[in-house]
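Database export, one record per block. Field names are fixed; values are copied verbatim from the stored entry.
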Amino acid sequence: MKLNIRVSWPAWLGMNSTADIIADTFASIWYEVITNIEYQSVIKWWLNHFDVNISDTNKSLSKFADMLVVFDDKNLESNLSTLRDGAFIISNKKFIEKVITKWVDLSKFKILDIEINDKYDNTYLLWVLFKLLWLSVEISFASIEHTFAKKWQGIVDKNKGIVEDIYKNYDLKDIKSYNLWKVWESKKVSFGNSMIAYWAIDNGLEFYSAYPMTPASTILTEVINSKKVNYLQAEDEIAVINAALWASFTWARSMVWTSWGGFALMTEALSFALQAELPIVAVFAQRAGPSTGTPTCLEQWDMNFALNPTFWDFEHIVLVPSTMEDWYYMSGLALNLAQKYQTIVIVLIDKQFSEWKSSFAWLKTPWIERWKLILNPKSDYKRYELTEDGISPYVKVWTKDWDFIASSYEHDEFWSTTESPDMKVLMTEKRAKKLENFFEKEGISWYEVYNKDAKKIIITTSFITYTALDFIKDNPEYGLIVIKFLKPLDERLREELTWKDEVIFVEHNYSWQLETYLTDKLGLKYIPWLKISHLRKYDLLPFYIENFEQIKK
């Protein structure tokens, strides 16, 4: 069973909360849930929609909706082209009539309208939907109590009254209901930025700084609400990154979060962090550009930027989580790797990943590792000691004999500024050694393979993974490789691809950044029988299952 329920109306009238109730309710009765929200940058007006995709098998996004819960005539008209024939339209009666007077043909759809005379429009429409799906009164009441737990009891009672009225008196017009019921135990559901905040906190986050920027903004709210982490909402992104590096200097596990424009302002400080060997995690949420572009929409423009975030000859780490479960593990992993290798770790996600909601299952939490932190340094402590693995011992500030200076200048082992050619060579090689044989040392894989024996392989990253997995389930002649680490690059992937017939790169940008990067680094163009193709999307919308059908043409 697959069902796409779309909620669509002006943003200030409760679209998000209505869609959240739908998502949370279906997860609570076992179904898999994945959502997609599209809204305009003038966020309190115009056309917005929130899709809730529900399934009893794989999670994926569909371009077409089976049910539309809509509040006004403008949003109704705008969604007609993406409704399946026979789709249900649930709306206030006056908006249906308004559209019909414009000679808009609604004959292909099933209309469930209701006359509403008070301000609880979204409540009435929601419970008409739930009656159509035949979710029990008990499930509806549980949803109300969960959603409005912090509200005035009168709101809870009002909603329960509307439910009872709808379930008792609303006529479904001889339409057969879906008759859904609780299948098994409840699943958990959350949205990306909330998961990022709380999972980083669970994995030892000690300092967080940020400046609001879509789609990164809500993580700051989550951190503040947790009351568990020292944080700073600074005046700009330059202050954000420098504050975090000060915290990192004291050996606090530090993280910043931003989108592309803010990340650009952080690059000089990131270069300083590489020179001074200060650990820092930067979560980089991509959105559509260039410049301000379309700031509330999806694209993956910034892969090259994350791979090359500053000047100089250096190595760093770039992670790309692809599922909710990934992020729980990778948030802790990012904090661990930053401190273990005393370097910058960039976690590259996108607008979709930040704002989606999804059901999820297992959570794998890494142990907190600080590695070469020493508690009792000798009086001749060398902060930048030349070691076999390139990683120097670190001490916390105010420990006896801890003193050193973290400078942007080149330095010797004791941190003293130097322009010695010999020392420059030694320090450059020391920093480069850290990430040599990274995957062997860590015992982790930088990619995952599905349908390993298929001769045609899709390669992708991030949120696209869910829909790609659903596609290969029904098309077993295709396999899938999901990239988890962009840097360092594990060249063992070439072995996976050597005997394939075709590699298809799927990504959200015009310039095929993932394809160019991997094809060049892995030398794929030198495998004469390997066909390299791509599926690109840069229309501000996510990959839907329907888009993957283009691969077969």
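Remark 1: The longest strand covers residues 83-92.
Remark 2: Residues 324-341 form the longest helix (18 residues).
End of record.
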